[in-house]
Amino acid sequence: MDAVSLNAAAGTQVPAASLRNAWVKFGQFTAIQDISLEIEAGAFYSILGPSGCGKSTLLRLVSDLIPPAAGEVSVFGKTTEAARLAREFAFVFQDATLLPWRSALKNVELPLEIGRSRGIDIPVSDKSPMELLELVGLKGREHALPHELSGGMRQRVAIARALVCKPKLLLMDEPFGALDEMTRDHLNLQLLKVWEETGVTILFVTHSIPEAVFLGQKVLMLKAHPGRLHEIVDIDLPYPRSIAQRDTPEFTRYSAHLRGLLEAC
Ligand SMILES: Nc1ncnc2c1ncn2[C@@H]1O[C@H](COP(=O)(O)OP(=O)(O)OP(=O)(O)O)[C@@H](O)[C@H]1O
């Protein structure tokens, strides 16, 4: 069975995340209203929606950074707190947030060092930090300091670092939003390779419709005022995906459908 089929087969397992009638409030303000949703283990979800619809809030809810005001959220069948403590998930933000005085390799090793120094028995990837850097295409740059790397390379280090504790769920909040189009295309392909090789579940927030369609097996479209689930769109395009697929009528149809949904939000 190839990696994509393996990822698909993982869909028969416990969901990677499950939200039941989940609400998030900031004081009187409702950021997320009554979302019920199951995230299939091993799948790649893109998350789209207008500014302020709660995309980042949804990731923060799943990752135990904020509690639900009502409803239930679980990650791989555990409470979000238990999943956080078990390193079931990792976050990648728009800013790579690397330590500037540490090399690429040392940044990737950091979560392991922190775990060891605290005496915590943390999961460790089957791949070494060096192999993870190789997986994201940074072989030969392991000793470079962050300021010696491009923005795209820094994001790749951040992805390798996120994978070092073998998360089962990767939460990505506009990780390529600040990059130019060509670099973004390249990193999209690289990320799909990481997904196929590791079997990790991915929740990927983006503002870009083409990026959402290109990456995802499903697109979660959210609505604003208040933030809620609008529609889940299955993207039935074969993997491995290639940039050339973007010129196909199917790709254009998915993009047009999502654009229509966004305009109706
Ligand atoms: N800590 C907070 N306190 C108060 N309001 C907040 C807080 N965090 C988010 N919000 C509000 O919740 C709503 C959802 O924010 P969120 O950042 O999740 O939206 P988003 O869809 O990710 O937006 P964007 O696409 O612009 O990044 C927004 O109206 C935001 O102002």
UniProtKB/TrEMBL annotation:
GO terms for molecular function: ATP binding; ATP hydrolysis activity. The keyword ATP-binding applies. Keywords: ATP-binding, Nucleotide-binding, Transport. Residues 17-249 form the ABC transporter domain. The keyword Nucleotide-binding applies. Belongs to the ABC transporter superfamily. PANTHER family: ALIPHATIC SULFONATES IMPORT ATP-BINDING PROTEIN SSUB, TAURINE IMPORT ATP-BINDING PROTEIN-RELATED. This is ABC transporter-like protein. It comes from Nitratireductor indicus C115.
